Amino acid sequence: MNLFGMGMTEIAIIFLVAFLALGPNRSIDMARTLGRVLGEIKRTVNEVIAATNINSDLPPNQQSNSDRDQTNDKETPK
């Protein structure tokens, strides 16, 4: 595995140094906080993706006029 140009050994050393520097209690709190932040970011990204895909989930007869016009332009030969 290669993350940001670092192998598993380098990543493990970084986590070990961080654990030793922060101590066991603080490092657990930091990991918990990081997990919450990453979860919130993931939920936000999923909400944005879902909001931008609203028209693609609708059947063709329920799409907005501008979407229908664009679709018709692509289908009609010129």
Helices, strands, pairings?
Layout: H1 8-22, H2 24-52, H3 54-57, H4 65-75
Question: Would you write up a description of this structure?
Answer:
There is one protein chain. By secondary structure, the protein is mainly alpha-helical. The chain has a domain at 24-75. 76% of the residues lie in helices and 0% in strands. The protein contains four helices and no strands. It is elongated, with a radius of gyration of 24 Å.
Descriptive key words:
78 residues, 4 helices, elongated, mainly alpha
Low-confidence stretches: none
| Share in helix | over 70%
Q: Describe the largest sheet.
A: none
Net shape: elongated
Amino- and carboxy-terminal Cα gap: 51 Å
The radius of gyration computed from the alpha-carbon positions, rounded to a whole number of angstroms, is 24 Å
Mean of residue pLDDT?
Answer: 76
Which structural category do the helix and sheet elements fall into?
mainly alpha
Number of helices: 4
What's the total number of strands?
0
User: Topology as H/E string?
Assistant: HHHH
Portion of residues in beta strands equals under 5%
Summarize the structure.
The chain is mainly α. It is 76% helix and 0% strand. Helix 1 (8-22) crosses helix 2.
